Amino acid sequence: MKHKVLVTGGAGYIGSHVVNLLGKAGADIVVYDNLSTGRKASILYGKHIQENLENLEVLDRFLRDEKIEAVLHFAGSIVVPESVSEPIKYYNNNTVNSLNLIDLCIKNKVKNFIFSSTAAVYGMGDGTGKCVEETELNPINPYGRSKLMTENMLEDVSKARDFNYVALRYFNVAGANVDGLVGQCTPNATHLIKIASECASGKRDRMSIFGTDYDTSDGTCVRDYIHVDDLAQAHLDALAYLFKGGKSQVLNCGYGHGYTVKEVIATVKKVSGVDFPVEIADRRPGDAIELISVAKKIRAVLGWAPKYDDLELIVRTAFEWEKKLI
Ligand SMILES: NC(=O)c1ccc[n+]([C@@H]2O[C@H](COP(=O)([O-])OP(=O)(O)OC[C@H]3O[C@@H](n4cnc5c(N)ncnc54)[C@H](O)[C@@H]3O)[C@@H](O)[C@H]2O)c1
Fold first, then answer.
1. Given 103, 113, 162, 213, which residue has the most CB atoms within 10 angstroms?
2. How many angstroms separate the alpha carbon of residue 302 from the centre of ligand 1?
């Protein structure tokens, strides 16, 4: 792949895995990241511009001067509870900055755009536990709403202009690069496998399970965990699709089956050999019982063929990375 791409948030957890695969595929990469939660050391390929998305002059100049052919937009704020206490921060960083970026793409004739959306747009789901792309969208926090607004903007702009996008709705992203090159460094991460790996590697004393009285096999919530390298590959597939002239798409990105919180914690204990303390806490408001993707469309449209659909492998890569991370 010889294309020139701009990757916002390429120093972050998911962006750095995508940059790694893009670099290996020979893409010409510019990473635009202010390092607010990302790390410079995670950028394995390309040129880095350490700037805020709010700096529209710089962004405009780079889109124009670097002759960018596609933008992959990962940069954003991602902590759901923080979005409830700091909604303006989320609407600014996730919605306003996305709007300005899309506007500059149109102005600079960048016609291909990939957006990191989220299963949070489904909110509590429709009660079936399964989400197809057509499932009613009902985000229940500012984070989910800020991402849905960007999906809506992309849809409207792509109808009005020569501009195509793929919005990937990620389910629960987990694990680290299978070669151990990059992993999750996000400070104060709220992701279950990351937290359990922190416990197993001695960085946390204990962790909590929020609610054990749900109507599931063991009473804990069920989620669809996708390995970050499989997710990263979906972005390369989406890019190839857009460069071949593919039309705009919104696609779920998950494995289509899930695990309970207790199953995940048991797997972390098994893989690490560490029996860390786990406390039972009350349910948290806003936790859906079960959120599983129906991810047939992404396979049909992009030809995406995941390779790491294996909870033990996901956990092993996360744990190995956590042990290396200082
Ligand atoms: N991690 C998940 O499970 C998950 C699930 C669904 C969707 N997503 C989405 O995927 C994307 C990436 O998430 P992540 O887990 O890699 O998060 P992350 O915090 O690790 O990465 C975000 C990156 O964006 C950069 N950034 C943030 N605001 C910026 C700004 N204003 N200007 C320049 N750079 C900025 C940060 O420094 C960081 O490197 C986000 O858009 C997120 O909403 C993540």
1. 113
2. 23
